[in-house]
Structure formats: C-alpha cells, structure tokens
Amino acid sequence: MHPILLDAAGHRRQPVTLPGYHAGRPPRNKGRRYPADPPTIEEIIAVMRTAGGGPDGMRLRALIVVLWRAGLRIGEALALAETDLDARRGAVLVRHGKGDKRREVGMDSWAWEQLEPWQQLRVRFPVGPLFCVIHGPTAGRNWEPASARRQLGRTAAAAGVRRRFAPHQLRHAHAIEMAHERIPLPIIQRQLGHAHLGVTSIYLQGIDNAEIIDAVHARRSPVIPATVGLRTTP
Question: What is the DSSP string of 163-214?
Fold first, then answer.
C-alpha cells in the first residue's frame, strides 16, 4: 500500500502534483501558437476593478500592474523580492530573467501608486517574495504561477473580458503601448529583456489592423509634373 503524501498545509496531495506524473505525456498545448492579441486598456482596468478590495484582490492588482506597466514575464514577477523595488528611481530589478540574465527596468508613476496598497499589506507577512501566499500555514512563501494564472483568468471572466487574458498578453500590451508612444525600439527591447530586435518586432504584431489601414489610407497622393506623359511637338 502506497503511503499518503501530504503538502505543507496538511492536505492530501493529488497524483498530478507528484514528480514524474507527466513523464512521457505531451503537454496539451504542444504545437499551439497563440496570436498576439493583447487586451485593451479598458479591459485591463475592468479586471483590476473586478479583483476587489480584499487581500487577494490587492495582490492580483499589484501583479497585473507589474506585468502590464513594467512588461515582466510571469516568472520574473513572481521571483521579485520586496527589496527589488526602487520607487524613488522608478526602477524594478529583475534578478533572474530569461537565461538567468539580470536587468533593471522602469515603471511609471501611476503604476507605483497602484502597487503601494499591496506593498503596505505585504509587511504583515513573513519576509520573502513580493508576491506571496497570503492564506494558511504557507503564508509568506512563493505564489505559484499556476495559482496566479487561475486567479487572473477567473477575474477576467468575471469582468466580462471575452478574449484570452494571460500574463504574457499583458506583456504584449506593454510593448505595443510603448511603440504607440514612439519609444525607440532598442529601449523596448532592453525593457523586455529580448536578446534580439527580431523578437521585439514579433511582440508588436498585435497592433490593430485598423491602425495600419488608416495610416496607409492617409498617405498623400503622388505628385508628378503636369507635363509628364505629354507628347511634345517637333
């Protein structure tokens, strides 16, 4: 008879959480590519409002702000420590980016204001990651990405968002908004932590087709000399 395994909270562990459970099984999303379909500002704000004013909602709003206004990956955001934030300079230190690369990114004043309520609540929990577990005996420990994604998805559905609302979509929104603000592409590249400009260009494919159509439609008519094509008399 196999022993019953319990997690840190004393709950029985499900087989899916055991090491090796997924060995040899292809992931359900293998081979699928999701289009760059970032949410609008209105949709993001609606999700933030729907999150509510309790501790769970404050934590989720803070996470949305870091993903959206600093353009972090979900793993980078959940790995942040409280000391990685420098509101005076408007800087966020990413210690473990993709490829374990370290970088420092910027975040705007509005985002820091939105982050402050969670920062004030965070000091009530044990020292640890910025985004931590807030319930039960594991309070203060790392908030798992799967749990964060579930809460984000549920809240987006409750807010009436009718599109895929994943952490990476907020990162795409960050890139596109900076492009609209005419921030140079190399700065966007460094902000996102991309090794190549080509990857950054892919992020900007989410620009609305209507913008492309309007920009091209508004081009000036070709101007040519009036005499072009006229035959001259010998």
Answer: S---HHHHHHHHHHHHHHTT--HHHHHHHHT-SSHHHHHHHGGGS-HHHHHH
Measure CA 207 to chain center.
16
Which of these, 128, 136, 139, lies nearest to 11 by C-alpha position? 136
CA-derived radius of gyration, the chain: 23
The distance between the two most distant Cα atoms of the chain, rounded to a whole number of Å, is 108
Give tens-digit pLDDT for 185-218: 888 888 888 877 777 776 666 555 555 555 555 6
Provide the whole-model pTM. 0.74
User: What are the φ and ψ backbone dihedral angles of 22, each rounded to 5 degrees?
Assistant: -90, 5
| The pair of three-digit structure tokens given for residue 132, joined into one six-digit string | 């931590």
